[in-house]
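Journal club prep, notes for RB
We'll compare a predicted complex against what the paper describes. Inputs for the acetyl coenzyme *A case:
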Amino acid sequence: MNQPADALDLHGAFHVYDTTLRDGMQQEGLNPTVADKLTIARQLDGLGVGYIEGGWPGANPKDTEFFRRAATELDLQHARLAAFGATRRAGVKAADDPLVAALRDSGAGVVTLVAKSHAGHVEKALRTTLAENLAMVRDTVSHLRAEGQQVFLDAEHFFDGYRLDRAYALEVLRTAYDAGADVIALCDTNGGMLPGWVADVVHDVVQTTGVRVGIHCHNDTGCAVANTLAAVEAGATHVQGCINGYGERTGNADLVNVVANLELKLDRKVLPPGLLAEATRIAHAVAEVTNVPPASRQPYVGVSAFAHKAGLHASAIKIDPDLYQHMDPAGVGNDMRLLVSEMAGRASIELKGKELGFDLSEHPEVVTRVTARVKEMESGGYTFEAADASFELLLIEEVEGRRPSYFDVESWRIISETLTRPYRPGPGEETVTQSTEATVKLRAAGVRYVVTGEGNGPVNALDQALRTAIVQAYPAIAKFELIDFKVRILDQGHGTDAITRVLIETSDGESSWVTVGVGANVIEASWEALVDGLTYGLVRHHVE
Ligand SMILES: CC(=O)SCCNC(=O)CCNC(=O)[C@H](O)C(C)(C)COP(=O)(O)OP(=O)(O)OC[C@H]1O[C@@H](n2cnc3c(N)ncnc32)[C@H](O)[C@@H]1OP(=O)(O)O
Ligand SMILES: CC(=O)C(=O)O
């Protein structure tokens, strides 16, 4: 494993410590492979964090394997790898405890030990004495230090323990520090703290013990990031967290939010220069690996973090984006976006047009018409903020005086059949077979096509028939694929009589676009969105 020996110097006095690969993976539903963990480690290194906690070697074969492979497969430029694990068990020597041995033999230069700092937990969970717990901390830290490893201590349940028995909680910290631990991270393990409480405790610890304080917060009160910042302002110089706020229960402090706030709001340079601008790309790349869709409203790096919907906001942004943004999105590698909806005003339409490559500044009459059509169509159930491609078709129609059109549909028809037939003689033994076929009649490039398509449902059958017909005139369509289909019933009181909205996402293998259709039934709405999806694809591919 190639680790920068000067990681501490590189990051000055401040540590950014990532625990995505350990605490982050304690999140319900996350179960990465070793290869996934190695990929995430590379991404975290690209963000410039100082430490990457890779897991708990010895606790499970996967984490042991991660450290084994990390030794040859990771070439970290910024971070040092840390192995996480517990202090020795009660009543055994640190050198004889197999889990401590796994930490020692992990190849990681840093070991982060979790230890009890709450007197009640020592007695109830460890079922040992307060003195033996101190000995467990002292022995394990000393043993690993003697083996040449740098040791950090995660003081589990510290804030709750401090409330119960301040003297004992502080004694655990001093014991670890005196034995050679470089950092004592105070953990809000149950995540129940608020910023003012964290600040008071951290301030007291810094003043009375002189230990180097770190902070590890869970998000059960929704305050993990705020608690982390409060701790830093009270004297903590080591922050722990997980990318995208992953972690046990409600998660850990979102490390991207923590570092962005430290750098941009508190003027603390905690990452190597320029790397904060990689944050959006990296947060999304990690989400791809974990297969958890990124939260669109995630501060700083979410796709909606700089998305503006209200007309009044857009009109001010047209003059100066700073009027409705707390920072330049480029600072974290994000982009400003304008959303078109019934809340749009003329400025929203003009800015959205510009984003799509249409300069409408000299065409106020077009802006007025588009604004009016958007509001009217949205009141009828359309939504353009989620369907940029349908909006662009509408815009082209108003700018050029005609909607792009590659084929003229004469008619379409669906037949859905359910066959119930016995598959074996005998009463009550039946099987049901469904089949749907669609017939589309249209003219494309001067030729009339009558095509039938089969599918596992009406929309699938229509899609098959439509693309089979027009691919003959426009071969580019062969690459297009329907990748997502969402149906929403709009006036819920009307049951099966309701208005239906369909959003369809189409891909050409490199990019994707979303179109919308609205109708009295799901098939009508889907047809409109399908036609728009293929039409927009042809426009995008510059098909004449
Ligand atoms: C707050 C946190 O998130 S800390 C991180 C927690 N992460 C994990 O638990 C994930 C990995 N854990 C594991 O794979 C397993 O729990 C292991 C391998 C660590 C231990 O497994 P087991 O030996 O089967 O024990 P179990 O899971 O029931 O844990 C309880 C044991 O750990 C001991 N223990 C708990 N906390 C500590 C601690 N801080 N220091 C030392 N021992 C501890 C308990 O005393 C108990 O020991 P005992 O079995 O001798 O009575
Ligand atoms: C160590 C840890 O993850 C916690 O106390 O929350």
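Talking point for the session: The pocket of acetyl coenzyme *A (ligand 1) is lined by residues 56, 59-60, 86-87, 89, 114-116, 126, 156, 189, 248 (CB under 6 Å).
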